[in-house]
Amino acid sequence: MISTTGSFDGRAVHRVGYGAMQLERLRDRREDAVALLRRAVELGVDHVDTAEFYGFGFVNDVIRETVRGEDGVLVVSKVGADPNPRGPLPLRPAQRPEELRASVEDNLRSLGTDRLDVVNLRRLDAGPGLRPEGDQVVDLDDQLAVMTALRDEGKIGAIGLSSVSLDVLRRALPAGVACVQNAYSLVSRDDEDLLRLCLAEGIAWVPYFPLGGTFPGLPKVTDEPAVHAVAQSLGVTPPQVGLAWLLHHAPNVLLIPGTADAAHLEANMAVGEIAFDAATLAVLDAVESRSSEVPIG
């Protein structure tokens, strides 16, 4: 059995957390959103991933209402994008230093706190989605300068990175990196070298799109016959197999699956109890990896 406890910036956490973006789907059912997040905490979630641009502040507002100090929940936010309701994606890059600082201040206000536990700098160098253009192409050193200043001011506890390349992570290491969030799953393992560097440096690897991409044309874990066969043999679901594989693959993996459904939440939290023998792992490891690089915008 794998360990269900991992490390996030030196803090012990349950390896399965909660990605709060899906709470946006409950915008018209606020009481249900609060109840779902409360249930996540009751099930053992002690790290929650969020951003001010999730639901234009709605998600942060729900977290502010629901999560109590005594819950001991690590709240991880992100900066580097702003809402863009009329765009091809509902986001636009916000990479300039002054925009990063403004986004931190926005998160502080909406979460009702004077310090953010961890803030991920979403760089947009890798993975599916937006790419920066024009004045949004900003040097990493300029971004890290403002992020470290915010940390020195006590507004940020730790700095993470998101959607970054191996070279960017290497350059950022001297500044101190708590976690990396990149698109990564059983069917999209482009970043294996980056994952190994994180493991060597004691950095949490927190994959988004852990079951494959949501954009058209991206591979999905649940489309794989091998995943379905393993799920049937173990009496679990294909999504549970995909999430459990990530936990088995490397000990620094922390998951943040999102859902707006209580039953799915309970299924996600149960993946830490799923055991794979060597033969099953070999079958899953043999699944073909395909690229998740689909730039948009």
From TrEMBL:
Lineage: superkingdom: Bacteria
InterPro entries (alphabetical): AKR, NAD(P)_OxRdtase_dom_sf, NADP_OxRdtase_dom
Segments crossing the lipid bilayer: none
GO molecular function, one term: oxidoreductase activity
Pfam families: Aldo_ket_red
Domain NADP-dependent oxidoreductase: 16-287
Protein name: Predicted oxidoreductase
